[in-house]
Write a structure and sequence with these properties.
879 residues, mainly alpha, two-stranded parallel ribbon, 34 helices, 3% strand, globular
């Protein structure tokens, strides 16, 4: 029985994760296209709604809870055993009842958020495709008729608001009748609104009669509901998007109708329904809308206009089928033309239509297929389809400050992520049940903890939304009179908002950590773990936490099941942090985000690691006016030093554009600032952590930017690439390490092991600087000389230190370290210590089985490094 619960949890979490990725794709489009030289307008998105979204808004009390379940975003809570006691069943029944109450609020919030997103894009009306507009009219007409038959009169939206306000005011007076209650007390008890009948307060006992009034409410809040022009109409608009279909587009429209009918399972399995059957009518409506959606977006792409039409739907089944609709394009093209031939069309006619359709999908020309618009339909569902649940990220799950960070489920599905970015394909397979995700292990206890934490987050988020969307003006005035005490009305409300927001923020952190430690444990049990050393983090005031990071660099320190890691993650982090009994567990959450990030980094999941580092930074950011409680006597100042450093390293690894390298540089600068603050407060820090680590990372960043520039354009002259930053960073590092002839910087003692990660990174980065200089010299560019980098002696010292670390086993020798160590041996002519005894060894080292490609520039770098190593090897053996 539990296995089905686990499967349902992963599947529904995957749906949310996938929909959030789509929401993020829209946000990226609005941001990045602003700088595009090809764009003819500012980027914009036009949201178009199906009838189901309006239906959910009209009756959230019916559509939120199960069986409809649009507000039950993750599954229900379960009992601790398959055979619960009577007491357990009663407790579970109460829990499920509260889940139903929350589900009503969730639907209300996500529908409002979807409509508000359209308003934010400047839409004065809520738009629909013609087929859905007609369907919605029928729904609204039926609601109005039923309301009139039931009551004989219609409650206006203003009357509805007045009734709701009076009910809410009466409840608030009941809640705060205690004369000793403070504003802080009230912020903690506001959750009673949910537990004591918020739905009744908001909607009243006769909810069905309110549906007609909520039609008026839509118009009052969001404007008219309008239909897009019918492209089949000869008198249609002459504008770019809405002009009448031309001859070529009519051919494409016929195929799109056919394609979407196939995708949505129209009359699948030979079953044919009556033309009056509701299922057929609904699918015909959807097919018509999807065809128009494809035509409109293809027009804007062809015209170079930065505009997208995004279809917002309630239909889960439709969304699931569209995830993979691009995969059947070629097959359906063939089926479509066979059907035309069978109907008597000539081969010449069919071939002409085929070319038209291939051009529509950019499939007819291999050269064009490599252009910026290639495979535009491959991302049809990602760019142009949204399920209404995607808006829960804005209104329920994230805050204004965290909305652009990776979503809560990245850690859970880390095993599905690529090395430097998160892709949707594996998550889509889990969401649609095409992939089992058996590698993600969730015990019954962990399931209960996960759902409990998720429900606490939704509870806190709804409480935060109550102040603005539910309490209303009269309620706010009452709160001011009760708690103002000389403050302004605005100050009182602002204080309450701050209290509620922080409570939500803390619960959000807890929920993501619960989800991510499931993903981390699954990764540790996989072959992907321990492929690389994590960044060299240092926690001088947290010996137990520091020991976790040191363990992550040791081979096979953690068992293959991940149990030991989870034990350390749970126990050791708590030992070094403020207990959190007072509700302030921010230090613990901050540290756990960093531990998770380091684990993901060691599994080469750099995008996921960066997201967790940024979550740790967000805790520091929001504590500026509310200092974080730390463990008594620990001496911790919570400056965010290690979080910034970790984010800098991860951002460098994931960078795919020049501005993203700037982000990494900014994180590193913030880490340096935090280091300076820590040193002023605690000078003894200098004996534990030295600026050498930061200097080495700065050199790594300058090298990475050089590699990236080389990988994206051909060098035409020596001055085409500025290597000054490499020289400056290398010299600054060499100056810093001058007093360490053996290149040993990591502090160790009999009581506390320190892995020599900084030693290793310093040596590898300096070797890379030497290699770049020699590479450029061989190509006629003499802008980096060995004398700039400390002469051959420095190179030999780096080789000695790397071999010493390799023999000791104190940290892993990764592919990157091994390659540059051997290149250094070739550069100084140390053939005996070089692992490459033949040209075949070099070719094999850079072969497909061990290519080590991670970053956006690694393919270019390693191809160039292989050619360089072969060249040096040949010259050595020719002497």
């Amino acid at each position: 029985m539990y296995s089905s619960d686990r499967k349902r949890l992963l599947q529904q979490a995957a749906v949310l994760h996938r929909e959030f990725l789509g929401r993020d794709a829209s946000a990226d489009f609005l941001e990045t296209d602003q700088d595009s030289d090809d764009s003819k307008s500012d980027p914009s998105i036009c949201y178009v709604f199906d009838s189901g979204v309006f239906k959910r808004f009209l009756s959230p009390w019916a559509e939120g809870p199960l069986p409809s379940g649009y507000g039950q975003l993750l599954p229900r809570q379960i009992s601790e055993t398959d055979d619960p006691s009577v007491e357990d069943e009663e407790f579970l029944s109460d829990t499920h009842a509260l889940e139903d109450v929350r589900a009503v609020q969730v639907v209300e919030l996500i529908c409002r958020s979807a409509f508000e997103r359209a308003a934010q894009q400047g839409q004065r009306s809520l738009l629909q495709f013609p087929s859905h507009f007609e369907e919605t009219n029928r729904i609204f007409d039926a609601v109005k008729k039923m309301s009139k038959e039931r009551s004989g009169r219609r409650v206006s939206s203003d009357q509805l608001e007045d009734l709701r306000s009076r009910r809410m005011l009466a409840f608030l007076r009941f809640v705060v009748r205690d004369s000793e209650m403070t504003l802080e007390d009230f912020s903690k008890t506001i959750g009673q609104l949910l537990k004591t009948g918020l739905s009744h307060i908001q909607y009243g006992p006769n909810k069905q009669e309110l549906e007609a009034s909520r039609i008026d409410l839509i118009e009052q809040l969001y404007g008219d509901r309008c239909s897009l022009p019918n492209l089949e109409d000869r008198s249609s608009s002459t504008s770019l998007e809405f002009k009448t279909l031309d001859t070529q587009e009519r051919i494409v429209t016929d195929f799109l109708d056919f394609h979407f009918q196939e995708v949505l399972g129209f009359e699948r399995g030979g079953v044919k329904y009556s033309s009056n059957d509701a299922r057929v009518r609904a699918r015909e409506t959807d097919v018509s809308a999807l065809t128009m959606l494809a035509i409109l977006n293809r027009r804007t792409i062809s015209a170079g206009v930065s505009k997208r039409f995004v279809f917002v739907t309630h239909d889960r089944a439709l969304v699931f089928r569209l995830y993979r609709s691009h995969l059947s394009i070629n097959r359906n093209i063939q089926k479509f033309f066979w059907s035309l031939l069978s109907k008597g069309h000539s081969r010449i006619q069919v071939e002409e239509q085929r070319r038209t359709i291939l051009e529509f999908f950019d499939l007819e020309d291999e050269d064009r297929a490599s252009s910026n618009r290639k495979n535009w339909f491959r991302k049809f569902s990602l760019h142009y389809i949204r399920h209404i649940s995607s808006y829960s990220k804005d209104c329920l799950i994230e805050s204004e400050n965290t909305g652009e960070l990776i979503d809560l489920f990245h850690g859970l599905f880390a095993s599905s992520a690529m090395k430097t970015r998160v892709t949707r394909h594996r998550v889509e397979e889990i969401a649609t049940n095409l992939r089992s995700a058996n590698e993600i292990k969730i015990s019954r206890a962990k399931y209960i903890e996960t759902i409990g934490s998720w429900e606490a987050l939704t509870q806190k988020s709804i409480e935060e939304n109550l102040l603005e969307s539910t309490i209303g003006r009269k309620g706010v005035e009452f709160l001011f009179q009760r708690f103002g005490k000389g403050n302004s009305n605005a100050d009182t409300v602002a204080q309450l908002e701050t209290l509620l927001k922080e409570a939500t923020d803390r619960q959000r952190d807890r929920t993501m950590i619960v989800l991510s430690d499931i993903g981390a444990r699954s990764l540790i049990a996989s072959k992907e773990f321990a492929q690389r050393n994590p960044p060299d983090l240092a926690f001088e005031t947290m010996p137990n936490v520091d020991s976790i990071f040191q363990s992550l660099v040791l081979e096979k320190r953690y068992d293959s099941k991940g149990d030991e890691f989870i034990e350390d993650f749970t126990t050791k982090t708590a030992q070094d942090c403020h207990p959190g009994d007072d509700g302030d567990d921010r230090q613990l959450s901050h540290v756990r985000f960093l531990v998770l990030a380091a684990a993901f980094a060691s599994a080469q999941k750099w995008a996921t690691a960066l997201g967790h580092a940024e979550r740790a930074i967000e805790i520091i950011r929001r504590s500026k006016n509310d200092p974080i409680e730390v463990k008594d006597g620990s001496g911790s100042y919570m400056t965010g030093r290690e979080a910034y450093y970790l984010a800098a390293t991860c951002a460098r690894m994931t960078a795919r554009a020049p501005e993203e390298f700037e982000i990494a540089s900014d994180f590193l600068a913030l880490s340096d600032d935090a280091y300076d603050k820590d040193m002023k407060k605690r000078p003894e820090l200098g004996g534990f952590l030295k600026p050498i680590r930061s200097r080495s990372e700065k050199l790594a960043l300058s090298l990475a930017l050089y590699y990236f520039e080389r990988s994206t354009r051909e060098e035409e002259s020596c001055s085409a690439f500025n290597v000054t930053k490499i020289v400056q960073a290398a010299q600054a590092l060499i100056t810093e390490i001058a007093s360490y002839p053996e290149l040993k910087f990591s502090v160790a003692s009999s009581k506390r092991f320190r892995a020599p990660l900084t030693d290793q990174s310093v040596c590898v980065n300096l070797i890379q600087a030497f290699t770049v200089g020699e590479f450029r010299r061989q190509n006629g560019c003499f802008d980096i000389s060995w004398s700039d980098l400390g002469s051959e002696d420095m190179l030999r010292r780096c080789i000695d230190r790397l071999y010493e670390i390799s023999v000791s086993g104190e940290c892993r020798e990764t592919i990157l370290v091994r390659r540059y160590k051997n290149v250094a041996c070739l550069l100084v002519g140390d053939i005996d210590r070089c692992d490459w005894k033949s040209e075949t060894d070099i070719v094999d080292e850079f072969g497909l089985n061990s290519d080590g490609t991670v970053t956006a520039y690694d393919k270019w770098r390693y191809e160039a490094l292989k050619a360089f190593a072969l060249n040096v090897f040949q010259r050595l053996h020719a002497q």
